[in-house]
Design goal:
mainly alpha, 0% strand, globular, 5 helices, 88 residues, binds heme C
């Protein structure tokens, strides 16, 4: 999974590999801010609807105007969403 991580962080334009804290923070944020409107399941379906190659970019453009205006929060939310949908 390392290669996948590097590829993705490269696409997002940041140098650090996502830390577990980001994933944990993202999970808390998603539960607090996102699942009131679309359930957790629905949210994951919305995420995987975008082809994998375009997913990170789409979330980066979409979320600033969609309940995640803070760049830090967004990074954590995206880290969490990718962690959850990633084939294990
Ligand atoms: C006020 C209600 C509301 C809140 C809060 C909300 N959303 Fe949404 N979101 C929607 C609606 C409505 C849609 C339209 C898609 C659907 O459910 O059919 C949508 C669509 C999306 C999509 C699909 C975008 C696409 O590719 O077209 C994503 C991803 C998403 N939301 C993520 C989030 C995240 C992450 C949060 C929390 C930071 C969040 N949403 C909070 C209502 C909300």
């Amino acid at each position: 999974m390392r290669v996948w991580h590097w590829l993705l962080t490269g696409m997002l334009g940041c140098s650090a590999v996502w830390a577990d804290e980001d994933v944990a923070k993202g999970e808390a944020l998603v539960k607090a801010k996102c699942v009131a409107c679309h359930s957790h399941d629905r949210l994951l379906k919305l995420v995987v609807r975008t082809p994998e190659a375009d997913r990170a970019a789409r979330l980066e453009t979409f979320l600033p105007n969609h309940n995640a205006p803070s760049a830090d929060d967004r990074k954590a939310i995206i880290a969490y969403l990718f962690d959850v949908v990633r084939p294990k």
